[in-house]
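Q: Can I borrow your eye for a moment on a structure tokenisation matter? Would you mind producing a protein record, from residues through to fold? Write it directly below this note and I will take it from there.
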Amino acid sequence: MNFELNERQKKAVEVCKELAKDFATRADMHDRDRSAPEENYEKIREAGLFGIAMPEEYGGMGIGFLGYSACIMELAQGCASTANSFNMHANATGSITQHPDIPEKTKQYVAKLAIEEGKLMCTSVSEPNSSSLLANAYTPSLEARKVDGGYILNGKKAFCSMVESSDYVYLYAHPEGDPNPQASIGFLVPIDKGNADGVTIHDVWNMHGMRATRSNTVEYNGTFVPDELVLHETDEFLNDFIIRGANWSFGGFAAVYLGIGIGILEFTSDFLKKRVAKGYAQPQAYHPDLRRRVGDMASDIHAAKLSMYNAAWHSDTYGAGVDTFFEFIKAKNTIGNVVANACKSATIACGASSLMKGVPLERMIRDAATAPIMPPNVDAAADQAGLLKMGLNPADAMPPLKSETELVAPKVG
């Protein structure tokens, strides 16, 4: 087990550190205006990072998931919304090029779009009424109807980060008439930054944090997708996208939130070292209560980072599978809880003056608010980790809620 970054990975991290410094100068503006950080995406493209999630054989950077995790953590410290949104591009290109059932010709085409043509892609899985606590709620209800030369899509997707800035959307739809709710077809949908025929973007994203992700709802009304952009079909959506694709389906998000947690720790440390209370000669950093808070934050975040790196290393070394899913689900649970605790400690340690608008900590704490609830949320992650640790069969676990088909109407009379 070795978490040491190689030279290629280190160079990529340095590029991301420099980008993060630039992104930080505009993060407050995009947060205030909830505007898409288009210039940040362009700078990422100019830096050659559109192939960050792809292996060398497809023309990608070939830095593995460990290298990607280290990079996205750096970007998140500059502008969390940019990192969280761009993670959707990595999710799409990484998921597609690692998937065993997608034809090589299709993978090469997707790589060409991203790297040579500079096309930005996002991943869109959530739908209205999906729940980060209930995995089955993520099975797609967006419907795909077969027609000559392709498919017609009808339905909605929710929380579609960066969709207005993207050229293509990676999504799954349910084949019309199929009785299996987990039957799904993967598509790469040409969306042309929301201008494609049959595509309507509903501007509903006015959130507490992550405001610049522009994670709006997208409605597909007779949207045509040609056969050449059909990626693959599966009868087991949850196993296919979430279990086998754990690194991209939720591991990347975990790394983004860990980056925010690192940023919160660094801000708190610097803030306390500079702040001197009236009547005292030493900065408040010397107060034992504050030292302990920073010490606890540093210890927790270090443990979370090692958990993330372990999962990433496991993914790069052993590939997809239940064991890799287990490592990522533990990392996700750890990071969600650690970042939430860091927010609490930082506010107590730094006080009210650190929460004024325009102070980076205020924005970082709001951006970090969804760390425990980003799918799978910490309760769902802990539940899955418990099942796997004890070797229990998930199929034998009692469902937490009754399904629609289980509800029986009361007898009358």
Remarks:
- The chain has a mean pLDDT of 95.
